[in-house]
Each structure stands twice: as C-alpha cells, then as structure tokens.
Amino acid sequence: MLEIYKINPAIDINKAKQHNFVLDNHLTLQYLQLQKKYYTVLESVLIEKLDLLSIEKALVTSPYFKDADLQLEKELSVANLKLKYFFIRNYLNIENLTQEQIEVLQEESNYNVLKELVETTYQNVIEVHHWFGEEIKHGKVLYDYDAEEYFKENTSLVLGFAHDKYHTVIEDDKWEEYSIGLDDLLEQVYRKIKEKAKEQLPCKIEFIEYTNFDDYQYNKIAK
C-alpha cells in the first residue's frame, strides 16, 4: 500500500477497494482522473465563493509577490488551473462519495450538475478520517514539513499559497520595510478570504505558505 499512501496518505483503503479504485495495490487510472476532475470543479467553486480571482489581482499588481502558476501546473499536473497563487492543498478523498455520486462525477459533463455535486460533497471529501491506514476522528494533519505551521485541522479546507518570495533583490537598508509591506498585504488577503469563507463555507479555512519549489514536493493530483 506504500505507493498508494505516497499519492494520498489520507485515503480510506476499504472504501477505495469497494469502488474498485485499487488494483494490485495501486490506485487505478480512474481514481486519479476523477480526483483531477473533482479538483478542477472544486477550484471553480472556491473561486466563485471566495472571490479568489479578484483577490489575486492585488497580489499580481503588488511589488511583493511573483506568481507560481507554472510551478503549480507542473507539480499538480492540472492543466487548467485558473489561479496563480492559491491551490487546494487537501487530499481529495473521492472514495468517500457514494457510488451514485461517483457515477455522476465520471459521466457528467455539465458544469452546473458537477458544481452541485461538489458543493454538496466537498466537506466530506476534504475531511481526513484515515492517515496511513489508521483511523482518526479529531485532530490535526501534518502537511509536508514537520513544523507547527504545517499542522492543520483534519476538517479544514486548506489552501496553499505559493509564490517566489525572494524574486526581487532588495537593498539591505530597505529589506525591513519591504518585508513588513509583504507581510501586511498577505495578512490582508488572508483576512479577506477568511471573511468570505465565514459567509460561504460550512467549514474552517486555513492556509499554508510555500516559497521554495526546489525542495517541496506538492501533493500531486492525478499524476
């Protein structure tokens, strides 16, 4: 099962097997394709609910943040990402869907139908109830690095924020002012998204910041 957990350590193996998503101790291509499809629809839903495209404009036009859309597209293997900075960091446990819901996800091409499916199921899909085969009920999940800021609640929607923090060369005597401006803008962005989330989402939202693409291996969706 090691190869499966490398792709999704939060997977419910028993449910995945029941849906025939596991073959010879590997995830099937169908699982990976449906996970990717779910991701793209969920991204569109979050863009709409959280006004993410408008929020990202403040980042694009600022002197602080260089977007990382090319790195995201490469690492996540999602060709039609609409966002430049934010991405869904949760493991998408589509095995938690019912068989009927899986059939809709697989067969439907109408966005409004898919949107309704995702809106009514994503809280269950993003929640982590298993970790490397062990059942968990409440607590936190460690995403990526072993540091406090990478522990997030197992029921939260987790958005990654990826950018090249050090793309601009700043003179030493101006670095403090630059750094404060960067942190202030990012805090404003996070606060605005959280305010939107309180109105639009049934779950808590949390963020993880990523700035080093050479060392970090993203959760690969459908690769």
Element pattern in H and E? HHEEHHEHEHHEEEEEHE
> What kind of sheet is the major sheet?
4 strands, mixed
Total helix count? 8
Approximate helicity band: 40-55%
Distance between the first and last residues' Cα: 17 Å
Query: Tell me, what's the shape?
Result: globular
Average of the residue pLDDT scores: 86
Category by helix and strand content: alpha+beta
What characteristics describe this protein?
15% strand, four-stranded mixed sheet, alpha+beta, single chain, 10 strands
Description of the structure:
The strands form 4 sheets. Strands 3, 4, 9 and 10 form a 4-stranded mixed β-sheet that branches. A two-stranded antiparallel ribbon has the order 1-2. Strands 5-6 form a two-stranded antiparallel ribbon. It has about 220 residues and is α+β, with helices and mostly antiparallel strands. A hairpin with a 2-residue loop joins strand 5 (about 130) and strand 6 (about 135). Helices cover about 45% and strands about 15% of the residues. The longest helix is centred in the C-terminal third of the chain and has 29 residues, at about 170-200. The protein is built from 8 helices and 10 strands. The protein is globular, with a radius of gyration of 18 Å.
Question: What's a quick, concise take on this entry?
Answer:
The protein is of the alpha+beta class and 223 residues long. The chain has helices spanning 2-7, 13-18, 29-50, 52-60, 69-76, 99-107, 111-126, 172-200; strands at residues 22-23, 26-27, 66-67, 86-88, 130-131, 134-135, 140-142, 151-153, 157-164, 205-210.
